Amino acid sequence: MGCAYSAPAVAEPPPNRANSGLRKVQNAPTPADPDSPEALARDTYFTRDEVLALRELYTKLSNELHQDNLIHKDEFMWALFKANKDNLFAERVFTLFDIKHNQVIEFGEFVRSLSVFHPHAPLVEKAKFAFRIYDIDATGRIERPELKRFLVALMADNPDVDLDEVALDDIVDQTFNEMDLTKDGVINPEEWLALVQRNPDVISFMTLPVLTEVCKRWPTPKKAGPPPPPQPQQRVWEQ
User: Fold this and answer.
1) What one-character DSSP code corresponds to residue 104?
2) In the prediction, which pLDDT does 102 show?
3) What sequence ranges are listed for the domain EF-hand (predicted)?
C-alpha cells in the first residue's frame, strides 16, 4: 500500500555546535512585527482603526521637509508651530518621543508616545510623562534651574510676558514652597504626582481631545475619480 511505504532513512551528520546553531536559526519562528496595527493597538490606548488613521497623519508629517517617512526635529517643530523655531517644550517632547535616541521619530515611537496624550490614558501616566518633560537633565528630579529655564523659554515665546530676574526667582521660590514637601530643594516624582492629583489642571496640556476623533480626520476622504466611460448600448433585435 502506498501509505505504508516509507523512504529509507537518511543518516544525519553527527551533531555539532555549528550544525545546531544553523538548524536553530532556520527553524526559529518569524518574530511578529512590533509596530503592526494589532501590536500598537494592544500596547496603547488607540484602537486598530485609529492606528491605521494615525499612519496617514504620520506619513504626512514625516514628509513635510524630508522625504524619508521619518519625523525629524525640524518637521516636528513645523507641525507644532508651522515654523522651524527653537522651543524648549517642543524639544523636550521630541526627545521623549525619540525612544531609540536616533534623532528621528519612527512610526511605532510616534503612536506609543502619543498614546499618553489620549483622553483615556490615566492621570498617573500623564503625570509621569509631564514630569520627564520638566526634568531636563533626566536626573529623576526637577531642580530650580530647570524650572527657571522653562520660565525663560515661556517668555521668549510670549513677548507680552516680560519678567525681570527678581520676578522669575520669586515664581520659582513660590512654586518650590508649594511643591517641595520635604524641603530638600528639589521636586521628586512623588511630590509632583501629589500636586497633579490635587490640581489636575496643571497638566491639562497632556490631554488632546482630538485624538478621540482621529478616525474622523484621517484617513482623508479619497476624491471621486472620473466617471467611467459610457458603455456601448447593446442593440436588441426584434424577432
Assistant:
1) E
2) 97
3) 85-120, 122-157, 167-202
